[in-house]
Design brief:
Distance between the termini of chain A: 41 Å
Helix content of chain B: under 10%
Distance between the termini of chain B: 37 Å
Radius of gyration of chain A: 14 Å
Order of helices and strands of chain A: EEEEEEEEEEEE
Order of helices and strands of chain B: EEEEEEEEEEE
Largest interface: A-B, 20 and 23 residues
Oligomer: heterodimer
Structural class of chain A: mainly beta
Shape of chain B: globular
Number of strands of chain B: 11
Number of helices of chain A: 0
Structural class of chain B: mainly beta
Number of helices of chain B: 0
Strand content of chain B: over 45%
Strand content of chain A: over 45%
Radius of gyration of chain B: 13 Å
Shape of chain A: globular
Largest sheet of chain A: 6 strands, mixed
């Protein structure tokens, strides 16, 4: 079956530090890959996505590249801000018609950015 | 952007009672809605997928008679936890989408069963 593994948290950084959150996956076929963010007290929001190998998703200074050869989709940001403090989820979605487009999530990584 | 609401945001109930959680897509029609359960420090676990006007498809290990899902319209799905017990206490999250398009998530409902 499909699975997503992301680095255990929590991750604590100082403002303007570089961020990497690792994510690897196993899947049959060619899934789409996503990063979702959950701010305190809120629901999940789509941060970025990539639908095929070598695609780079980007949003709000965050980037992740779909690496088929290493089955990875690591999230990076060059300079984090306090407002980036949240839980980040890596996820994949099968693209086969019979899957009903289900998402498989990693366990989430809590990021805390200190001023 | 697309907005999905959930009601209530939190609920406390006595063991043995039933609780209904509503999920609404406020500014779009959702052909598919998903219900997840999130345990502390764990991932979101998909419970079931519902398409408007048809029976929900439950994931393996999820009791369909305990977690009743109704997707009566393109903007509303409900999850009813029947005869709730303390082990049902959790954070329940819905999402709504249109086929293969992006899923939009609700803010979640915190259920505590005493």
């Amino acid at each position: 079956g499909n699975s997503v593994t992301q680095m255990e948290g929590p991750v604590t950084l100082s403002e303007e530090a570089f961020l990497t959150i690792n994510c690897t996956y196993t899947a049959t076929g060619y899934p789409s890959l996503f990063w979702y963010v959950q701010y305190p007290g809120e629901g999940l929001q789509l941060l970025l996505k990539a639908t095929k190998a070598d695609d780079k998703g980007s949003n709000k200074g965050f980037e992740a590249t779909y690496r088929k050869e290493t089955t990875s989709f690591h999230l990076e940001k060059g300079s984090v801000q306090v407002s980036d403090s949240a839980v980040y989820f890596c996820a994949l979605r099968e693209n086969s018609g019979g899957s009903n487009y289900k998402l498989t999530f990693g366990k989430g990584t809590l990021l805390t950015v200190n001023p | 952007g697309a907005v999905v609401s959930q009601h209530p945001s939190r609920v406390i109930c006595k063991s043995g009672t039933s609780v209904k959680i509503e999920c609404r897509s406020l500014d779009f029609q959702a052909t598919t809605m998903f219900w997840y359960r999130q345990f502390p420090k764990k991932s979101l676990m998909l419970m079931a997928t519902s398409n408007e006007g048809s029976k929900a498809t439950y994931e393996q290990g999820v009791e369909k008679d305990k977690f009743l899902i109704n997707h009566a319209s393109l903007t509303l799905s409900t999850l009813t936890v029947t005869s709730a017990h303390p082990e049902d206490s959790s954070f329940y999250i819905c999402s709504a989408g249109q086929g293969a398009e992006t899923q939009y998530f609700g803010p979640g409902t915190r259920l505590l069963v005493l």
